[in-house]
Amino acid sequence: MPSLRPLTDQETSTYEWQLWVPGFGSAGQEKLKAASVLVSRCGGVGGAAALQLAAAGVGRLILAHGGDLKPSDLNRQVLMKHEWLGKPRVECAARTLRELNPRLEILAVPENISEANAARLVGEADLVLDCAPLFAERFLMNREAVRQRKPMVECAMYELEVQVTTFIPGQTPCLACLYPEPPGYWKRQFPVFGAVAGTVGSLGAMEAIKVLAGLGSPLAGRLLSCDLRTMDFRVLKVSRNPNCPVCKEA
Ligand SMILES: [Zn+2]
After folding, report:
1. Tens of pLDDT along 168-212?
2. pTM over cut 0.85
3. What letter does residue 205 receive in the DSSP assignment?
4. Looking at the chain, which runs of residues are DSSP E strands?
5. How far is the CA of 221 from the centre of ligand 1 (A)?
6. Cross-strand bridge partners of residue 109
7. Rounded (5°) CA angle 43-151-41
8. 215 CA to middle of ligand 1, Å?
9. What is the whole-number distance in angstroms between the Cα of residue 238 and the centre of ligand 1?
10. Which of 46, 123, 205, 214 qualifies as a cystine partner to 41, CB 3.0-4.6 A?
């Protein structure tokens, strides 16, 4: 982590309500200010997460997302606006976040995570927030997060179900422990509401804030599974695979 700098008066007044949170305070806020977070894809899930991280005063966001805004993005991608249809999504996301928090430093990368950029982008971050829809991207970030010993918050949704867990290299399972192969049922496009994306994105942002600030108990070695159709929330223990090809040496 980079060295911490004291909060300005404007920062203290902006973050006043969260500075009152027991166990957080100005020491926690200074850690957020110094932190860089990679958010992979800033659509439904990542957009909701990035919005909360920007509002909370995380100092630097690295947003990776390719492609241009389409009408079918607008039911869940809350950083976007109707009038921006056809524009690059990552630029739309960066603009909304800067309007919310002009102190924020944003690196807007108009690409999805790939073999060509995963090591570099994970290397720029203190924490990775995995909000990518494709397992190929998720596995690349997982491999790099384990190799570079960076925590990764994993957010997933399908229909009205969400899952969140936090991987801490050397302590918890990694994504490849949980999914040795991409699950056969997984599809690029699937039925979902924006409220589901917002739920899992906000949960992921809270996990990131907790890990960065040393607050509370992250979902390390635990997986939160929520069925929003029934409002059944469960926390499951997850274990390392001692033969995991990605993390067995970590
Ligand atoms: Zn593993």
Report:
1. 999 999 999 999 998 877 777 888 999 999 999 999 999 999 999
2. yes
3. H
4. 36-40, 60-64, 105-109, 127-130, 152-158, 161-167, 222-227, 232-237
5. 11
6. 64
7. 10
8. 25
9. 11
10. 46
